[in-house]
Amino acid sequence: MRIGLAADNGNWHKARLREALRGLGVEPVLFSLADVAVMTGGGEPLRVPGFADGLPDGVLLRTIAGGTFEATTMRLGVLHALVASGVTVWNGPTAIERSVDKAATSLLIARAGLPTPDTFVVSKREAAAEIVAREARPGNPIVLKPLFGSQGEGLMLLEDPDDLPAQETVSGVYYLQRYVSRSDGLWRDYRVFVCEGRAIAGMIREGDGWITNVHRGGRPFAWDVPARAAELAEAAAAAVGVDYTGIDLVEDGEGGFLVLEVNSMPAWSGLQQVTEVDIAGAVARGFLNAVRAARPPRLVSALG
Questions:
Q1: Rounded-to-integer distance, Cα 26 and Cα 18, Å
Q2: What whole-number distance in Å separates Cα of residue 27 and Cα of residue 117?
Q3: Using 50, 70 and 90 to split pLDDT, how confident is the model at 210?
Q4: HEC per residue, the chain
Q5: Are 29 and 286 in contact (CB under 8 A)?
Q6: pLDDT, mean of residues 53-69
């Protein structure tokens, strides 16, 4: 198999995935989506580094290089073009677009009938102020999240409409979500890793503040994922259409869980510290299974 591993940063994850693919008998070609070109005038117009004589059979995507809106649009266009050409891409561009856009994720989760905190997405500050005035109060805040964001960056707790930032600072979109507090006062949530539609590992995340991301100082703890949390995470992954993902959950205070986020390019260094499951190995196996399933069977000569 001709396999590409697209990773622009995150050396730890890149090395783990490369090692896992090699362990399964595949030598991946490392490349960056930023280096893919479109050149017409002869042969395949999509030029992927390391694949001079055609396209790969599959591309395992770890990260997409940051950049301008135009650059990101082109890189997603490259992924769409690969999929249209029959290349297996994990995660695919549609799943990435759905999960990177938190509004799209919330819409899909709600349409699937899955439990999630009440969420409000509007474009104008006046509309956002009305929501905060109606839904928030001291001790019961609303969370403001960047529409595009990860690792807990840019989150704010709001109790008063006057605390809302200006429209231009949120790129013209206010993504507001009800804050779910715990009765015991702990800052805790949960991450479930789903691959090939199955929950394979999970962890508890605790912090000294309300943002519990391991990247921001949150502490990971081992977690024997209960069936109801596993089923919810699997359903959330299916609703968004991700092949491998980290699903963030919080307790609902009634013995169940709520879906917070679906991550299409999840980090798992914190999770790997507290689970015996080889996360990179599971992702590599699932990806190669998908590539093999998509490849047409080889014809064997009756004389051979």
A1: 9
A2: 43
A3: low
A4: CCEEEECCCCHHHHHHHHHHHHHCCCCCEEECHHHCEECCCCCCCEECCCCCCCCCCEEEECCCCCCCHHHHHHHHHHHHHHHHCCCEEECCHHHHHHHHCHHHHHHHHHHCCCCCCCEEEECCHHHHHHHHHHHCECCECEEEECCCCCCCCCCEEECCHHHCCCHHHHCCCEEEEECCCCCCCCCEEEEEEEECCEEEEEEEEECCCCCCCHHHCCEEEECCCCHHHHHHHHHHHHHHCCCEEEEEEEECCCCCEEEEEEECCCCCHHHHHCCCCCHHHHHHHHHHHHHHHHCCCCCCCCCC
A5: no
A6: 89
279-294 vs 11-23: helix axis angle to the nearest 10? 60
Q: Which residues contact 254 (CB under 8 A, 6 or more apart)?
A: none
Task: Give the pLDDT of residue 299.
Answer: 44
> Which of 12, 9, 4, 26 lies closest to 285 in space, CA to CA?
26
**pLDDT value for 150:** 58
- CA 16 to mean position of chain CA atoms: 18
For 166-208, what is each residue's pLDDT tens digit?
888 888 899 999 988 777 767 889 999 999 999 999 999 987 7
